UniProtKB/TrEMBL annotation:
Domain of life: Eukaryota
A Pfam match: NPH3
Keywords, in A-Z order: Ubl conjugation pathway
InterPro entries: NPH3/RPT2-like, NPH3_dom, SKP1/BTB/POZ_sf
Pathway per the UniProt entry: Protein modification; protein ubiquitination
Domain NPH3: 188-509
Name of the protein described by the UniProt record: NPH3 domain-containing protein
Family classification: Belongs to the NPH3 family.
Cytoplasm among keywords: no
Extent of Low complexity compositional bias: 355-366
Organism from which the protein derives: Lolium multiflorum (Italian ryegrass)
Amino acid sequence: MKFMKLGGRPDTFFSPSESARSVYTEVTTDLQILVGNCLYHLHKFPLLSKCLLLQALCAEPGSAGDGEVIELAGFPGGAEAFEACAKFCYGITITVSARNLVPLRCAAAHLGMSEAADRGNLAAKLDSFLASCLLRRWKDALAVLHSTRHGAPLCEELGLTSRCVDAVAVLIASPANAMPAKSTSASPWWAHDVAELGVDMFWRIMVAVKSTGAVHEKTVGDALKAYARRWLPNVAKDAEQPFDDAGAIAAADDSVKQVTTRHRLLLEKIVSLLPVDKDAVSCAFLLKLLKAANILSASAASKAELVRRVAWQLEEASVGDLLIPSVSCVSDMLYDVDAVAAILDEFALRHAAATAQPAQPPAAGSPDDDSPARSGGHRRSRSDESVGFDGARRSSSAAPVSQYALARVGRLVDAFLIEVSKDPNLPVDKLLAIAEAVPDSARPEHDGLYKVVDSYLKAHPEMSKSARKRLCRVLNCRKLSEKACSHAAQNELLPLRVVVQVLFFEHARAAALSGGPVASDSDLPSNIKALLSSKSAGSEDDDADRVDEQRLRALASGASPGDDWSVEGLRRAASKIATLRMKMEEDEDDDEEFVRKAGLSRSASLRFRAFCALPTANPKRMLSKLWPLARSITADRH
């Protein structure tokens, strides 16, 4: 650390009493100055020749007569700084370094020790030493900057703080002149030292660094992460706080509200410093900031900026990053799904903006050579209706989304929904909003979405039929794999319509693979269509409906409970559904007459029993009645 010595005389100050200081001299002292609790007995001539303040005070009538004491209340730097200034006036040697330059400079300014009082005065010498030596060395510049937190208003007025901030920024931008210590982490060499500063000072340095344009934005992002790691983990701890530059040192008994306020300020400052480049900070770091913003009740602007930035690089996130704890007092949900929904709205807006732009030829060797996928038929984003973009934001949101990124987001959202679907307090509307926010092209298959539905049905067994049907509408049975179809055919939690659709589409897929005609929805037998129609319209007999569902599942799937998620079970299911279709097509001409003569009602449950099952009570008696009836129907036809 550099230092400077001023004056050449030996130190002759002494303490005649515990609270008094004087100087050895043959001349009697004629000036008494009280600084704090210390009374100085000095001489007018050496002090008044260099201090404009003392000249003015002594010129006032009766202010410095015999026995009168001049009190300097609130003197910057206290008695120690005043004594150093007095020694300079006497020509006694004083040592100036980065540790005491700021209080000495503030004291000299308060006393008026400028060039107007005397040539080569203390203030000019301190400014010269600061500019020529201290601000050119990294450690010295930081030490001077640290000391400006004491007497911050006067330091700002004198320009000391701004000079130190600019000097530190220049040293960061020109590391060859700073001679820093070796860095032992992935953070830049200067991040650890700057992280010890108060939040206001840190913010000013980072703004100055970014304004130079000489530091890569990834480096700025690493410094922000280092600062956040240094202070944000102490949200609920009584630890040292980086807010000394505001003059408010946190006491050990600070209330939670005060600590929260300080950390909220820190978080909002960090958010305001986030670099523009997409890869400057990781998506995981942004989501950690968003979690902290929820806990600290940060401003809506900070949350919105974090949501936008996360949506910009959502494909880099993991499921654990998206599990944001809920801090709402009006909801019992475990996770903040509204924040994730807002992120997906921004992502949908980014995707829509990119697909709306004219196709641009990809750059050679670009990892995103694929043209952006179309958004398909997903619902319109709320952000698309309410958010306006300025130039920078519009360009970032319109960044092209590759098909690879879309697929990653689709898998990420499905994995997230599987986790949150286990929450018994999660409303189905919120789950559907998140599931539908993903573009259709992001899900080449719906196995993950089927697991979401299955998990939600297991966690909410009390769901009504209408709610289950509404939940299952997000599924596209054509996009289910063989394994998922096999499981769905045996899933008693699914509505009957979904089970029939799964089996039919699986049969159609098997027929297409075998070279047969490809089936469509219109190929369903009329009795199956009537059954599904009656099911969708509702049934008056819920117990009969449940029996119908069980029988149709058993007849159509032909799988035992032990075949859960087995391919062999799927093959048996495909075979059974083909047999079922053939049987129902043969009986299609006879079923209406049979039902009329048998006196059966038009309810879905009775119609199902007529088509798909034999009576379980007195089968021989029922058969004896059915055979003559069948013969009579044949005779009538002839």
